[in-house]
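[job 4471] stage=fold_predict status=RUNNING
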Amino acid sequence: MEFESEDLSNASLAERLRDGGPHVFRECDLTQADLRGLSLFEAVFEACVLDRADFRRADLDGARFSGGGGSGPRFEDAELVDAVFTDVDLTSAKFGNALLTDAVFTGCRMIGAVLSGCRGTGYRFTGGNLSLADLTGCTLRGETIEDVRFDEANLSGCDLTKAVFLRSRLIGARLVETRFEGADLRGADLGEVDDTRLRALRGAVVSAEQAARILSERGLTVL
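[job 4471] inference complete, writing structure tokens
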């Protein structure tokens, strides 16, 4: 079923989506729409308003979101295997306990998003803003993280083993029990590195320039 420029705000869509999919939504207003538990396998959402849209427990495997978005959409307990989000505003989105295996987030605004407790591996972030986001316990092991901001984000308990950071920022990020073994941070802006953060970065690879700055902050000069 296809929806084109429809106002679906505050609507419960269970009845309208009984027919087989995949469903297509183009430039629809889904503000506070109720899509809980629905089968949205390989659904397409193009430039839709997603303010507080409720996708909890929905099957969104293979779904494609592009453009649009809004504040506070809910994806808790949803299935998002192979889902793709491109240039979507996911500010304060909630992904708790969602299955994100091989999901891809490209160019997304995810300020204050909550991904703590999400399940799966292989999900990726490229060119996005995750400032103030909560990624507690997330697994980004071996991933290439490019052009992503994690300023003031909570990365506690994250597995970043052998991850590669390119043109990304970790300024003020919370790093309690974060794993950095073999991670390449040469392309990351680490911000100010105090002794606590330095211990948290144990096992990571940094550049000579970064190492010199860290030592300089401790009153040492590298010649």
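[job 4471] summary: The chain has a mean pLDDT of 96.
[job 4471] exit 0
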